[in-house]
Amino acid sequence: MKKLLKTFTAFILVFSILIPVNTVKAEEEDDNTFVVGMECNYAPFNWTQVNETDTTVPLEGSGFADGYDVTIARAIAKHLGKELVIKKMSWDGLEPALQAGVIDAIIAGMTDTADRRQRVDFTQTYYESQMVLIIRKGDQLEDAKSLKDFSNKKVLGQLNTLYDTVIDQIPNVKHATALEDYPAMVMQLNNELVDAVTAELPVAAGIIATNPDLTYVEFDDGKGFDVDLTDTSVSIAVNKDNPELKDAINEYLDTLSDEDKKEMMDEAIERIPATITNLSDNIFVAAKQIFEVYSPLFFSGIGSTLTLAFGGTILGLLIGLIIGAIRAIKVEERDSLVSKTIKRIAWIITTLYIEIFRGTPMMVQGAFIYYGLKNIVHWDPFTAGIFVITINTGAYMAEIVRSGIQSVDKGQSEAARSIGMNNIQTMIYIILPQAIKNSFPSIGNEFVINIKDSSVLNVIAVTELFYQAKSVAGSLYAFVPTYFVVALIYLCLTFPTTRILNYIENRMNRKKAISFDAEGSVK
Fold first, then answer.
1. What is the pLDDT of residue 434?
2. Which residues pair with 484 in a beta bridge?
3. Would you tell me the crossing angle of helices 68-80 and 258-271 to the nearest 10 degrees?
4. Looking at the predicted structure, is the pLDDT value of residue 16 above 60?
5. CA atoms of 512 and 523, how far apart (whole Å)
6. Residues 6+ apart with CB under 8 A from 101
7. Per DSSP, what are the bridge partners of residue 106?
8. I need a surface site. Which of 52, 57, 79, 261 has the fewest CB within 10 A?
9. What is residue 85's predicted lDDT score, i.e. its pLDDT?
10. Distance between CA atoms of 358 and 220, rounded to whole angstroms?
11. Closest by Cα among 140, 136, 129 to 186
């Protein structure tokens, strides 16, 4: 058992060393920066690319952001006399980040709506467009002149946006279930699962640039969607408590003419990386092309994912060992009143911890802990991500350890007490080593799960493997080959991991054979 305990300790130390020290450094406020949040996967407004150019802005971790939004953000930062910092995060995380003060503004093709205006403030518009329908090239809908031509057709829009709600203006339309992002929507269209996708003209142009088998339909006045001009325009969101920033941004936007905005958008469309316009129809060849170009982003995501999984699993296991041991201690009749009270309180607290963190999604925990506690704990997204995985894993590990403790024969505890060991000594030296051995398969399984589940942390701007892939897919509008690449990468991470864990488990379960010589002595 001592050898087992030493092996486990060495395991923890080795993987703890793998956690970069600089990832747990608190985020410092800098008044000389203009921090902007965007998805970086919504071409031509914003996208992620590997190569640095005169128009790009470096992203934390790896990669560079470019697009119309980036151009606008650079110009505003220059007008403010500040350095531009772009935080790459999921759409759902943008508003919470703004409200928590993590970012100064959202420049991400966001429409000013009455609902959003209750939570954040908006500047004047920085781009105005029209709404179109993206269709497959060669489809009879290419000749469509009005919305009536799309009757009885299945039309898809983006989740929680105007582009989904306006679909019901089409007579007898088959309203498809909205999806979160355009790469997924384009995949539905390419695979003939829907007949059309709603979009604003610049986004449609960006999609067509990378999907030559698609086109879009424009409508004459009075024959298209009935929307106000403000509904098809985009504005910059700022915090309600920062009217000075709003006024300063409006001051710059006043200097831009419609021609200036159109020219900036046209240039952004032309800048969409040429490497993404020549993807092969063969999924394996296309996947190879994507990996060759975007491998730096994938490798950066792999590093973040493994660090999150290693750190969160190891620290979560330590929490699980402590809580599992506490929950395994039973209230006995011979205990004093104080001892009984302490044990019952400890059981209640640990039960609440386990039920809360096993009963709520990790994504919700991440958003609450990072954004909700931002004013109390000043940490960067990566550190918060490790903390979230740690406490989430700890809740599961506690139950795994508890079941492992219960699997140890009660005679072990009785034997320990008979030689004078107290409860703590018995737990540390006798019970826990055996419990860990019995529970090792489940402990290893938690690590594999954390490799995959760390993807939900993109809601707090943690750019792990899945979100890097999502950014690539958003830049390419090539959903299937991009996610084929990331699926293979996850398989390459989890397969050897499970083999290593199985090897360790077999070593732990191996029993040494005892042989005797002719005189009956142990060899």
1. 85
2. none
3. 120
4. no
5. 12
6. 239, 374, 375
7. 37, 237
8. 52
9. 95
10. 54
11. 136
Q: At 217, is the secondary structure helix, strand, or coil?
A: strand
List of residues 6+ apart from 207 with CB closer than 8 A: 43, 134, 182, 186, 199, 214, 477
CB atoms within 10 A of CB 342: 14
In tens, the pLDDT along 308-319 reads 999 999 999 999
CA–CA gap between residue 480 and residue 460 (Å, rounded): 25
- What digits encode the pLDDT tens for the residues 96-135? 999 988 999 999 988 888 888 999 999 999 998 888 999 9
DSSP labels for 390-412? HHHHHHHHHHHHHHHHHTS-HHH
In three-state secondary structure terms, 516 is strand
Q: How many residues does the chain have?
A: 523
From the number of C-beta atoms within 10 Å of its C-beta (0-12, 13-18, 19+), residue 221 rates as exposed
Instruction: Give every CB contact of residue 427 below 8 A, 6+ residues apart in sequence.
Output: 325, 328, 329
Question: 9-23, 241-255, 274-288: which has the minimum mean pLDDT?
Answer: 9-23
* CA gap 256, 254 in Å, rounded: 6
N- to C-terminal Cα separation, the chain: 21
